[in-house]
């Protein structure tokens, strides 16, 4: 992604380096005890496993603070009108981090924190997340579950890690829209899911801001799952979200990177995702 955005096609892209998030901001989605547990788990060398999938190295804590800080800074810029939309190329990803549990490569719930920050700092009432990562965003769902003014729509392969995301999981206030896809599904079924369920639910929610959990591991070449999307499918999905953003919230979108493990597929998908966002911002 860094090489991509350094190319001639992205000379108009405004690039900003975030500041690390204050730990108090992380408390919008995670209890203090959990933050302290993660902080104390920092290794001084080598690797420390938090679970079989999720590990920390000496730089993980700092990277996690920057990832959260990228999301909140992007929210600030978009709400202030300094940018119409933003994409945060971050690691660690965040959508599997539950209220008090790191998992699935995720330490802090970047998108969920950004959503709560938008309400706490800027007074927005209704914030939506659209998650098209191939894995269900169980952490975002966990944090949003009981809050009627936080909405999440997710397309994902099922059955697959983390084992959540059934259509029946719809939140305490009907504020969760899960659209599971079977292994082998391609762009036609993905687009049908967006047209029939994700976009209508997002439109009905009428958000003041849309956040995207932009995972690109549903790409057909990705090694971690079995959904067969191509870059054009991600471009199309981004344009559909942008249309609702134009209609409902003055085009305000903050997109945050989640999964993507085939490097060429990731690069191609991010390229078209950025193309749509930059066109929408003009």
Task: Describe what this molecule looks like in 3D.
- The protein is α/β, with parallel strands linked by helices.
- It contains nine helices and eight strands.
- Strands 3-8-7-4-5-6 form a six-stranded parallel β-sheet, with helices on both faces.
- Helix 6 links the parallel strand 4 and strand 5.
- Helix 7 runs parallel beside helix 8.
- 48% of the residues are buried.
- The model has no long low-confidence stretch (mean pLDDT 97).
Q: What's this, in brief?
A:
The protein is about 40% helix and about 15% strand.
List keywords for this structure.
alpha/beta; two-stranded antiparallel ribbon; 9 helices; about 40% helix; globular
How would you summarize the topology of this molecule?
Blueprint: H1 2-5, H2 23-26, H3 32-40, E1 48-49, E2 55-56, H4 60-79, E3 85-88, H5 110-122, E4 127-131, H6 138-144, E5 150-157, E6 176-181, H7 187-205, E7 209-214, H8 231-248, E8 253-257, H9 263-280
Parallel strand pairs: 3-8, 4-5, 4-7, 5-6, 7-8
Antiparallel strand pairs: 1-2
